[in-house]
Amino acid sequence: MKIIGSVLLLSLCALSYESIAQLTVNTCENFSIGTVLKFRNCQTSGVYHGDTGANQTWDFSNLSTIDTVTEWVLSPSATPHGSMYPTATFVEKHSDGTYVYAHATADSGYLVGFEDSVNQFVIQYSNSMLFAVRPISYGDTATDSFVMNYSSSSLNFPGKGQSSIIADGYGTLILPNASYSNVLRLKIMQVEADTSTPPYITTIITYGWWDNIHNSALLKIDSTNSPTYISQDVLYMISEAVPTGVKQVSIEENLLYPNPVRDMAYFETKDKGAITITNQIGQLAGSFLVEKDVTEIPTNNITAGLYYIAFQTEKYRQVLKLLVQ
Hints:
This protein is mainly β. 0% of the residues lie in helices and 56% in strands. It is built from no helices and 22 strands.
């Protein structure tokens, strides 16, 4: 999965088409801890991402498989360097030895770190990178900026960039293993530049196809272009195993009050876990252990605005909204 940017200049531009029915996807990258994903890695020669627009048929039934790759969705505490990314709420561990550290809110996903344990390559984001918006509809766009630091061996490379998400088409997707209707395609473009003179610029373009049943993209076509490196990857999903026994929590079971709040909020639950508070661009505003029935959440030092209260236990994760006045 190639991902995109953050100091969120997010602008979702919902375009209205009177003659075209809107297709909206609500599940994009909304993973539960314990999910296991399997993909077919394919030959890239001759693969074209297809046309934009409404009522498309994208036929990839002739993709040729190289091998199978696996991704595991883990808790950050279950990974070697989870403590380096305190804002991460989940991690994608890939079978090639890479780790993607991400922070999820109710309606967005942000990249906060990337580690390649084989090649000893690390990216840390001081301003996280937006990679998912929920919900997203045909015609919507999102733009974003981000700041990161690359490190490899003893070298460090600060950088920054701009990214965009465009829901540029919908229709039917045909893969070697299945055919899917009501699929939304997203074009994700990420342009990164380091601080050298002239800057070293890398452009990553990802086309991903989503439906409203799966949280992962059904098909991903990634292309990377830089002054010294050009590559393409094609992956299609063959299974998405969601953990059984994950508790579904209603707001009536776990209570957050008062809401709106000025100085002190309270979170009431019978379960133990941890709370993280983030603003609308994924920046951490506080964290608390939940070890008793009622946990105090001081808000008198928080700037007024909308925040996300993420409660994580060993069995489930719940996100609530809190308005600070």
